[in-house]
Design a protein that fits this description.
This protein is α+β, with helices and mostly antiparallel strands. It is globular. The N and C termini lie far apart (62 Å).
């Protein structure tokens, strides 16, 4: 039996920000069951293409739960989130790091500090290395989506702090090689 769910956001504090591509809000909202997914833009990755002889050792993006807005004691956050990317064809895909090993990729809630960490090392390296849109390995940098790991059968939602509020960290460790 399939359930038909409908979400009413008419009284939501973020109503004005819904479906707005260029709005950087104070909070990031993620809700499953046909609810909310958030678009994340990481600017500047393309500029690393000019860095010759450079390899990404590790690239992580870390999202911090707003424990007050999420009301974590009454509404536990999802155990896992999914961080996908938008390909040049407009479709949504998991980064190659996920297929290397889902545990390596991450996205699991760390309850010691209420964060979700994603390892996107290979994906970032591909953005830098593969610049030809006609190359089958080209992924571009059109943006990312943050959703719950289980969209249809778990109703846990979460509110995260935005980059504007210091709630998103991007950590990149790299090495430069000699010619």
């Amino acid at each position: 039996m399939l359930a038909n769910l409908k979400h009413d956001y008419s009284d939501a504090p973020f109503l004005a920000d819904l479906d707005q591509e260029e709005v950087e809000g104070d909070l990031i909202y993620v809700q499953p069951t046909g609810g909310l997914k958030s678009r994340i833009t990481v600017t500047g990755l393309e500029s690393w293409k000019d860095s010759i002889n450079m390899g990404i050792n590790k690239a992580e993006i870390i999202f911090h739960v707003d424990t007050t807005a999420s009301d974590i004691h009454n509404y536990p956050p999802p155990s896992q989130l999914m961080f996908t990317f938008e390909a040049p064809d407009g479709e949504e895909y998991r980064p190659i790091d996920y297929f290397f090993n889902p545990a390596f990729y991450g996205g699991v809630l760390d309850t010691s500090d209420y964060t979700y960490t994603f390892n996107i090392t290979q994906h970032v390296q591909r953005i830098i290395d593969v610049t030809d849109p006609d190359d089958d390995e080209f992924v571009g940098n059109q943006g990312f989506f943050l959703t719950t790991g289980r969209r249809t059968d778990i109703a846990n939602r979460v509110v995260l702090k935005s980059a504007k509020e210091g709630g998103v960290d991007m950590k990149i460790t790299y090495s430069k090689f000699l010619d």
